[in-house]
Amino acid sequence: MSVTLPHIEDTNSTNYFPPQGEFETFQDDSDYEEKVREWGLSTTKEVKKEFWYKEATHQRLVTIKGYQVYGQSDDHYTVVIEFQDGNLSCIHPAYLKEMQSPSFGKVLASASGGEPQAAVEEKASAKPKASKPAAKKTEPKKAEKKDKPAKLDLPADKVHFTGSVKQFALTWNNFNEENDEVVVLENVIIEGENPLEVGLAWCSHSKTLKKFELSPGDKLEFDGKIVKKKLPKGKDIEDEEMIIEDPVHYKVNNPSKIKKS
Q1: Looking at the whole model, is its pTM more than 0.85?
Q2: Is pLDDT at 247 greater than 60 in this prediction?
Q3: What single-letter DSSP state applies at residue 241?
Q4: Distance (Å, whole) CA 259 – CA 43
Q5: Which is it for the CA torsion 185, 186, 190, 191, positive or negative?
Q6: Which of 211, 256, 253 is nearest to 75 (CA)?
Q7: 77-122 pLDDT tens trace
Q8: For residues 252 and 14, which has the higher predicted lDDT (pLDDT)?
Q9: What is the DSSP letter of 216?
Q10: Most buried by CB count within 10 Å: which residue of 27, 68, 149, 236?
Q11: Which helix (H) or strand (E) holds 117?
Q12: How far apart are CA 170 and CA 198, in angstroms?
């Protein structure tokens, strides 16, 4: 059976989900490229600037204007997209990634009685249910207690940090389903009138950081935002030096004004 592809542009049929309140914008091109790659929305050398937004009856070109973070550890993202007519709408990055598949429009066009877009977005952003442990064991409990970090009152705004490079590591990215390279920092301190010792933290090894040609032991100072987000372990890592040695519970987002000494 042949399937009719949705036609391009149909502004009257688009379901918009405008952002509630303010949203984060990108600091510069490097920040944009880092985020888009992290979400798995572009794997090419030149990061994509336009994306397809598809519904059952039409498809439209959109650009990414920013994002909103949510969750207790600020590790969930909602992407804010802009249509060519200026309308803004929110969408989960994993769902926008699905829309870039050539077969996505065909599936929507041929489906009947399917779930509305809002339901699909809610499903895409839902947290997986934690599986129940098969049995209680003494050793894992001890490891879990050791793994818990001291509670820190983290600032919500951008602050100034000092620290040093501990190692480079690989972490699994669920969006693009591959390992990403990160920088693990040690002796991280939030500077100010009342300095706050963080200890270990991590950040993406972005183009901005790569320009500094960092090595373990390099001392840094920089600005950035810090959130509680544990560094996930990578998968199928052949180079032992890229394996995370210690649990790291805090992430620094978008480090800027970097100085190396």
Answers
A1: no
A2: yes
A3: G
A4: 29
A5: negative
A6: 253
A7: 899 999 999 999 999 999 999 998 888 866 666 654 444 444 444 4
A8: 252
A9: T
A10: 68
A11: helix 117-125
A12: 21
